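Thread: 4'-deoxy-4'-aminopyridoxal-5'-phosphate complex, take 2
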Amino acid sequence: MKGRKLLMIPGPIEFEPEVLQAMSIPTPSHVAPNFIACFGHCLEMMRKVWLCPDGQPFIVAGSGTLAMDLAGANLIEPGDQALVVSSGYFGQRFAHLLRRYGAEGDILEAAPGELVPLEQVEAALAAKNYKLMTFTHVDTSTGVRTDAQALGALGQQYNTLTILDGVCSVAGERIHQQEWGIDVVLTASQKAISVPPGLALLVVSPRAMQAWQQRRSPVGNYYADWHNWLPIMQAYEDRKPAYFGTPAVNLIMALEVSLKQILAEGMEARFKRHAHIAHAFREAMQALAIMMLPAEKAAAANTLTAAFYPEGVDGNQFRAAVSQAGVIIAGGLLADLKSQYFRVGHMGPVNQNDLLATVGAIEAALHHCGYPYDTSAGSKAAKAALLADF
Ligand code: PMP
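Output below.
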C-alpha cells in the first residue's frame, strides 16, 4: 500500500513533478547567463499571470509575510493614514505590520465567515483621506473571498492606494490587477503559484511606484527596501548580472516552470477550473450536511473551503481519521473558533481525482466518528457537480 498521503491543506500544496525536478539540479551561479535568462523570464511572465502589463514585478526570497512587508514598508511613512479591510487572521496581521512602520488609521473587521460590507468601506474612505487600503482577497482563516474588483474601484475613486493580499488567491482566483486598478498584488510561492515555500512575489502599479519615489523618509526595513531590489529586477529583466541579496536560485528555476505551466493552461481556464473544483467540493459538503464558514455562497473562495465539524464529531479524531484514509487537511486558524472547524485547500494543480479522494477520506472519517447520516452522499454530489457543465 502506498505510504504517501495527499496534501490538501491551504498551502503548501501538492506540486507538479516538473516543478520539483527543476529545483533538484546543481545550483548555478546567480549571475550565470542561463539563470539571468530564467529570472528575467519569470518577471515577464508574472505580468501576464497578474494581468498587469504595466506593473513592476518583484521576486524576493522569503515567505508571504515578507511580500506583505515589501508592500507595507515601502508605501507607509510614519503618520500615514491606512485602512485595513479585514476578513480574518491575515487582515489583522496587515494591521500589525503597517503599525510597525508608523501607520495610523483604522481597521474594519468582519465577523468570522463574513465580509466587511462595501458600503462600510466606502463610508470610511469618504470620511477620511487614507493613503492606502489593504484587503485580503481570500482570508485563509475563513475561506471568504472579498470583492477585489469593487475594492480596487473604490481605491481609484477615492485616490487611495490599494494592496491586495493575494497569498491565497493569485493564480487561483480571478484577478485583473491593471483593469481593476489595484496597486499592489502580492503572494507567496507555496499556494496557487505552485512552487515550494520560499518566494515572496508582488507586482506594483506605476501609481504606487510613484508614491514610493515621492517618500520623504527612508524605508523602515533594510531588506525589504525597493531601493535595493528595483535595480536588481530591472537588471535581470535586461538580462544583465546584478546583486543585492543572493536570490533563491533553485526556487526561481522552479518558478519559471510553474509560471509556464500556468500560462499554458491560460488564466481564464485556470480561474474556471478552480471555481468548478471548489463548487464540486462545496456540493459534497452540503450533501453531507456539513456547514461551511462563509455566510454567503457568493463569498466562498475557490482556493480553499473552511467548514464546521458536524455536531458530535470530535475535530482531532476526525482529522486523524481523514489522515488515516490518506489525505491531510488542516484544522482551524481563527483563535475563537479554532477547535470548531477544518480547512481543505483545493488550488494549483489540484484535479478531480484529488478532490474525489478528499471527499472519500472525509466520508470515511465521518463514518469512523459515528456520523449518523449517509456518508456516501458527498462523493455522489461531487461527481455529479464535476460531470455537469460549469
Ligand atoms: N496572507 C494570507 C492570506 C495567507 O494565507 C498567508 C499564509 N497562510 C499569509 C498571508 C502569510 O504567508 P506566509 O505564511 O508565507 O508568510
